[in-house]
């Protein structure tokens, strides 16, 4: 992700650090034999945090990266097809 606003990078890194913390928490919960319900709720929080991070990066991709690719002379249809394929994978 080149030419990204440093504040945007910090926002993404903060979200990823939060995810890392949630994962460490789930590991501890499993080691401490916590209930399945508690563990599943933490996993939902992890999934949500990862999804929000993906959305931020997808927005950046759609607003900047695609335009850069087209402006650099890449085939518009190929760039669009690749973008659609990548964004579809996000929702699988």
From TrEMBL:
GO terms for biological process: negative regulation of DNA-templated transcription. Coiled coil: none annotated. GO terms for molecular function: DNA binding; metal ion binding. CDD domains: CsoR-like_DUF156. PANTHER family: TRANSCRIPTIONAL REPRESSOR FRMR, TRANSCRIPTIONAL REPRESSOR FRMR-RELATED. This is Transcriptional regulator. It comes from Desulfosporosinus orientis (strain ATCC 19365 / DSM 765 / NCIMB 8382 / VKM B-1628 / Singapore I).
